[in-house]
Write a structure and sequence with these properties.
single chain; about 130 residues; mainly beta; 5-stranded antiparallel beta sheet; 10 strands; about 5% helix; about 40% strand
Length: about 130
Amino acid sequence: MSMIHSYGRIENHDYVQSPFRESIDWNASGWWNGHFIVIEEREDILVIQSTNEATGYAELEIKTNGFKVIGKPSFLTNDIVKINAKNKTGRIYNVTYHSARECFRYMVDYGNRKSTCWYYDNDLEKAGNQCP
């Protein structure tokens, strides 16, 4: 079963592949403590990408055993979506998991500005490939 587009966290940083394993202070807070989406699989190695735009969507490699899957979001970073209540279209730029609600939430870039509120699955629908 493919883990592509699975969303999760680094469970054990000892499984992260070089150079990140040695170059990050794993005890400090930082983007490496955030959420990731699996973008590629190579046998027992996953290529995971940060969901945080501020990191430039940093990528790293980790052995499968070091990654904890939470689930698969309905929308992915860079998907074009329509915000139903606002009749606006935009691009998903941040995906996170809301632990208390146990669901995914999304931030949208409208083109002229970025959303300041979270959207949930029922707030959005896929809108094709282009923003207006």
